[in-house]
Amino acid sequence: MFLPLTAKCNKHFSPYGSFAFYYIYPIFICSQVHLLGRLHHRNLVNLVGYCAEKGQHMLIYVYMSKGSLASHLYDEKYEPLSWDFRIYIALDVARGLEYLHDGAVPPVIHRDIKSSNILLDQSMRARVADFGLSREEMVSKHASNIRGTFGYLDPEYISTRAFTKKSDVYSFGVLLFELIAGRNPQQGLMEYVELAAMNTEGKVGWEEIVDSRLDGKFDMQELNDMAALAYKCINRVPKKRPSMRDIVQVLSRIPKMRHSRKHHRQSLSSIANDIAIDVDQPDSHTPVSEHKREESMDSTADTFEV
Fold it and tell me: Where are the transmembrane segments (predicted)?
């Protein structure tokens, strides 16, 4: 079976669709192969192979046909992402980062979480990409130069030059707010968030920052839960930020609670229908149709647990 691939190598950008080429230094590719060769998870853009021959240095990845999260948030050629998609994308990214922090041995810190580094596959499952700045946790946490993307950088990292797992958590919090608001840090996202937080106390009332392209089609409780979590992630004190494992647990509960509420409403409706039938037709019996749960964006959403 043919597997579409994306490659990074020392050639110019390719016009051939499935391959994107960028210059990679030989030393860099060796460090990337060493790091990426042991990372395998459904929410990471996994390395398929590499080539170093006759001056050609290439990294080969599975091709992500739906492009980046950033393009779906900001490119007008795409329809606005629904609220459901945004929740599942957030959960996918959280699971990928949880694997890097708690599943990889030794743990890996990504250091450049942002919407353009989140890629979507054919089924719209999100995967964390671009490990160019990633480091194993055991490597010195101190850096002479600040590396990363403005607006997503942990303030503690900027002031101390030390990056930790909680630096990734901060960037993830910014990404959550980006999913909620449909704007990025370069568009004043965090100033927008801080103004809203003055009125919400970080808990409820976040509807004023919601992406207008959602046209009001979102669940208020889910919004407040997601925004409250994001606000904890961007706490100025790293120790007060949740771990990625805690974040996955919180985000996992959002669709579960939605299904529970939907089932409860369906049950109440079924009971009301039964009562009406009993009153109108006391001698007849009409079976109640079985409730079928709506499919999420991915029919395997309930099997995402790692």
Answer: 20-37
**Which residues are the active-site residues?**
112
What domain range is 159 assigned to?
69-252
**What is the edge-to-edge ordering of all strands in the sheet holding 56-62?**
5-8, 56-62, 47-53
Q: How many helices (H) and strands (E) does the chain have?
A: 8, 7
- 235, 101: one domain: yes
Q: What is the 3-state secondary structure (H, E, C) of 118-184?
A: EEECCCCCEEECCCCCCEECCCCCECCCCCCCCCCCCHHHHHHCECCHHHHHHHHHHHHHHHHHCCC
Same domain, 108 and 194: yes
Residue 244 shares a structural domain with residue 134? yes
Residue range 261-274: mean pLDDT, rounded: 64
- Within a domain: residue 217? yes
Beta strands in the chain (DSSP E): 5-8, 47-53, 56-62, 108-109, 118-120, 126-128, 135-136
Q: How confident is the model at residue 14 (pLDDT cuts 50, 70, 90)?
A: very low
Total domains in the chain come to 2
End-to-end CA distance of the chain: 26
Instruction: Detail the residues annotated as belonging to a binding site for Mg(2+).
Output: 117, 130
pTM over 0.85: no
